Amino acid sequence: LNCSVVVGMHPDQATEPLVDLALALGKPFAVVPCCVHGRSFPGRKTACGKPVVSYEDFIEYLLSKSPDCRSAELPFEGRNKVVFRQS
Which of 31, 36, 52, 76 could form a disulfide with 57 if both were Cys (CB 3.0 to 4.6 A apart)? Predict the structure, then answer.
């Protein structure tokens, strides 16, 4: 895949696959998750084994995919946390 960065702005069910793709390709990424879709992905667990059911759980879950993942708040209201990895 010939890309420089993987980006997803409220990508719904594609959030985790976007992160996984970027990590597999060694690319930087930034995703702004919106919906958790806990019922669609019942196998997701936080580091302590808790099911991923809240927005905060989902952010924690995505951050746990790599020690290089970070998060930050963006300057707008609503679901404004970005999970990212720089190159």
Answer: 52
